[in-house]
Structure formats: C-alpha cells, structure tokens
Amino acid sequence: MGSSSKNIEQAQECCYHEWMSLQFQRIPELKQLLAQRRSHGDEDNDNKLRELTGKIIGDFKNYAAKRADLAHRCSSNYYAPTWNSPLENALIWMGGCRPSSFFRLVYALCGSQTEIRVTQFLRNIDGYESS
Where do the DOG1 domain residues begin and end (predicted)? Predict the structure, then answer.
C-alpha cells in the first residue's frame, strides 16, 4: 500500500508539473498578444486573445479533471500537495482553499437534502433501518 500511494503521489506531481509547463509555454504568447492589443487594438488580435484564453482555460480544465481522478485514489494530496513548499501550502490554506470550503460548497450546491441523506446513510451503516 505504501508504494501504491507513493505512485499516486508521483502521478499527481507529474500532472502538476505538466500543467505548469503548459502555463510557462502560454505566458509569453499571452504577454505578446496583450502588448500588441495595447499598441494596435485590432479585431484579429482580440480573436487570437480569445483563442489563447480558451486554450488556457482548457488546459486548466484538463488539469483539474486529471487531478480529480487522482484524488479519488489518494485525497490527502488534493488539499496539501507534498511537492509544494510549506509556504505554498500555508498560502493555499490562508487563501481559503481548505477542505471545509469544499464541504460548504457541496452543502450549498446540494441544499438541505444533504443533512437528511447523511443521516439516512449513517443510520444504514449503524444497522438502523430508516422508515
């Protein structure tokens, strides 16, 4: 089990580094397009900016999907990745990205039915039948 979690951790770290390398490739192009927009302001440049923005958002969506898939196998790295420095992890938490934030979001999205379902689930685990 120890090597399995280590492999998942390495896969998560690899996923992160792939996404960061994509960001490093896109940033110079984005800066160039923004500088051209300031100086020229043509419509063709705006279309290129929209296209690049779409690519960047797509990259993030792919990264988030891969990370979510890996989180199903090992969720602790989802909240405090081991490849981050302690300062980065502290900034993540201070910035509001805490496990409790995710629970609040799920509760807000699911509404009050969450409490009822959790109670029913816990009763079924304890062997009590809900009527």
Answer: 9-131
